[in-house]
Request: fold
Amino acid sequence: MKNWLLALASLLSLQAMAQGKYGLKATTLAEYRASIVSNPDKELVALKDVIPDIVLDVRYATTNNFTKEKIYSLPRAYARKPVAQALYRAQQEFKKLGYGIKVYDGYRPYSATVKFYEVMKGDTVYVASPYKGSKHNRGCALDMTLVDLKTKKELKMPTAWDTAEKESWAAAPVKDPEVRKNRETLISVMERNGFKVYEAEWWHFDFVGWQNYEVMDIDFEELEKK
Ligand SMILES: [Zn+2]
Reply:
């Protein structure tokens, strides 16, 4: 009886390992490739390919982020195809106003979310829970701001990107009317084009319909291997 229980326990712990440390089984490269065959919308596309005039500042490929470590080996911003297409439509609207999109982060491999959670010691307001994964892991979220098309300089916003402060909240009171207008423009154009701002971060937008896309753990190098 005891041996039988031990065998069962070791079988269960093996299964737990296969499910990941936090009980979430992220999509692998092989599973991702199979998913695109049955549903082409699941393809992760490089934002630069869909929106050539987009500005990228992929901070997690540098040490200029809250972890102070280089998390990505390549400075890439990917999103699922319909997400990139919706962002393209938003870009056309911003351009009419003299602005352009600057992206700090798009698709983020699940292992990076686990790392962030461990760095932040379990905070789940400003980093996603590894038990559920982030919408970035699904290729359905963007961290972004606006730049002036002429100067390429960032518009003034309430805080810097990835600041874990009360001023980061999307509806936080703002005194400066210019800053308030900039944040309002960003949020209203994005929300008209199929996104929803995250209440605790003015820069984070989820694609409406993210539930249809799985959490993935594929790094950029794997993704670019043909
Ligand atoms: Zn984000």
Notes: Helices lie at 2-18, 29-38, 47-50, 81-96, 110-119, 177-192, 220-224. The first strand starts at residue 44 and ends at 46. Residues 136, 141, 143, 204 surround zinc ion (CB under 6 Å).
